[in-house]
């Protein structure tokens, strides 16, 4: 198999569900490699980190050169994503990011701890009631989704009764983030984008008439005071992206992480006994099965990466999930080991585009996972969960589980990661409480 075939494997339905074998095939060609598909591909941790931090690379948003899509230029999904802070370059990126960043300062995030704890506790108690007689409960739908959507909607001022539809709209929209998109997938993404933009447009008008203490009001005021600071299209696009990014990554972090823990029962027991281990555990969960598997940059001028020439205007696929399992950076990379020193996964990116909500996602996961394990000590998988066929944003369709002991569910939860996409069944030592190294990659 040559490098182009390895890329095609990664982009195939099987590769999207389980990208790790394709990562290893690509890694065999070096930390960065040219392809005959019009892109470079990076699998090495150091190379990916270098590109993320280098202002000589800009964000890019288009399908692979070998995969043109009809309707891309007029797509509502593409327009929404491209006009947001997510896919902007200087000077627009700094201007928009400055307006949004105030809602995600360390002080504001720390102040949300009690809110997150209260919401998580209420969701766990409700789930415990529904599953008390052995009924199967979808922990993704009943917990991992409503927890972060509740938090981000509170920050944006979205009424609680409006939140149910966002999961479907977001699932549709994020299809456009894949590196290779079909016309049918783009049509689905457009449907989600239109629904989300229509909703936030109505919310904007509501906040104009009735301002509130929320981020939507703050952005509306910034636009209305000086449209040069934030255009109308940018206002709507950024509200959509904040809503989507505010829960999609965290939902998958909690879901992916819970499956890993249940397949490593000694570690689940350790976290259950000592929630103080949560920071180290969350970093390792981010590393071993990242909710964000890839991003891309475009070379503004000519560069050289690990000795490989990268010409101007060449797109570089940054495989974050591969970098997180680079043996040069993480010895025994397929081993789940929360005691790793200097564990700094690439999952939230780095440099100027470091994820604004990274601290909030970490806070939610650090509260949610120990709480689930402590309150529901018999939590067990009810069968083998299925991943969504997405490469960029990695997560499950659903997480059916039992909350009380049954013979079948107990055996499922203790099975060493059957099926595609699961981390290797090896497990590192159960760590003592540690203070992880700083992980903000700003």
Strand order of the largest sheet: 1-2-8-5-3
* Uncertain parts: 407-425, 433-442
Strand percentage lies at 5-15%
CATH architecture: Orthogonal Bundle
Terminal residue distance: 37 Å
Structural class: alpha+beta
Q: What is the highest CATH level, the class?
A: Mainly Alpha
Arithmetic mean of pLDDT? 89
Q: Tell me the major beta sheet.
A: 5 strands, mixed
Q: Write the H/E string, N to C.
A: HHHEEHEHHHHEHHHHHHHHEEEEHHEEH
| Helix content, binned percent | 40-55%
| Shape estimate | globular
Which value, in Å, is the CA radius of gyration?
21 Å
Number of distinct helices: 19
CATH superfamily: Cytochrome P450
Short note summarizing the structure:
This protein is an alpha+beta fold. It is 49% helix and 7% strand.
Describe this structure in words.
With 442 residues, this protein is α+β, with helices and mostly antiparallel strands. The protein has 19 helices and ten strands. A five-stranded mixed β-sheet has the order 1-2-8-5-3. The protein has a three-stranded antiparallel β-sheet with strand order 4-10-9. Helix 16 packs across helix 18 (358-375). It is globular. It starts with a helix and ends in a 28-residue tail after the last helix.
């Amino acid at each position: 198999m040559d490098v182009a075939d390895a890329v095609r494997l990664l982009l195939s339905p099987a590769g999207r569900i389980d990208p790790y074998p394709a990562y290893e095939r690509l890694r065999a060609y070096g930390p960065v490699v040219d392809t005959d598909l019009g892109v470079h591909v990076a699998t090495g941790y150091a190379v990916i980190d270098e590109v993320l931090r280098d202002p000589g690379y800009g964000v890019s948003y288009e399908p692979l050169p070998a995969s043109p899509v009809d309707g891309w230029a007029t797509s509502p999904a593409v327009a929404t994503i491209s006009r947001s802070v997510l896919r902007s370059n200087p000077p627009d990126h700094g201007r928009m990011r400055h307006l949004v960043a105030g809602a995600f300062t360390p002080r504001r995030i720390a102040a949300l701890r009690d809110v997150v704890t209260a919401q998580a506790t209420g969701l766990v108690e409700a789930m415990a009631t529904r599953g008390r007689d052995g009924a199967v409960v979808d922990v993704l739908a009943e917990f991992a989704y409503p927890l972060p959507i509740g938090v981000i909607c509170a920050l944006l001022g979205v009424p609680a009764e409006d939140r149910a539809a966002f999961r479907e709209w977001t699932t549709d929209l994020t299809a456009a983030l894949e590196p290779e998109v079909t016309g049918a997938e783009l049509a689905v993404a457009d449907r989600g984008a239109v629904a989300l933009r229509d909703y936030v447009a109505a919310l904007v008008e509501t906040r104009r008439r009735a301002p509130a203490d929320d981020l939507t009001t703050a952005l509306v005021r910034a636009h209305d005071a000086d449209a040069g600071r934030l255009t109308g299209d940018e206002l709507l696009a950024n509200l959509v992206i904040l809503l989507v990014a505010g829960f999609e990554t965290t939902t998958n972090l909690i879901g992916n992480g819970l499956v890993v823990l249940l397949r490593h029962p000694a570690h689940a027991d350790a976290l259950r006994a000592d929630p103080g281990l949560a920071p180290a555990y969350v970093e390792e969960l981010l590393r071993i099965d990242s909710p964000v598997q890839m991003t891309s940059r475009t070379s503004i001028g000519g560069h050289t990466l690990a000795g490989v020439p990268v010409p101007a205007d060449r797109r570089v696929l940054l495989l974050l999930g591969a970098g997180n399992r680079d043996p040069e950076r993480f010895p025994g990379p397929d081993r789940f080991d929360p005691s790793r020193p200097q564990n700094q996964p690439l999952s939230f990116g780095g440099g100027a585009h470091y994820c604004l909500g990274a601290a909030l996602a970490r806070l939610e996961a650090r509260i949610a996972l120990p709480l689930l394990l402590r309150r529901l000590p018999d939590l067990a998988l009810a069968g083998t969960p299925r991943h969504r066929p997405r490469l960029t944003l990695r997560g499950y369709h659903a997480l059916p589980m039992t909350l009380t002991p049954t013979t079948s569910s107990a055996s499922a939860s203790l099975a060493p990661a059957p099926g595609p996409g699961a981390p290797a069944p090896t497990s590192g030592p159960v760590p003592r409480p540690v203070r992880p190294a700083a992980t903000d990659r700003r």
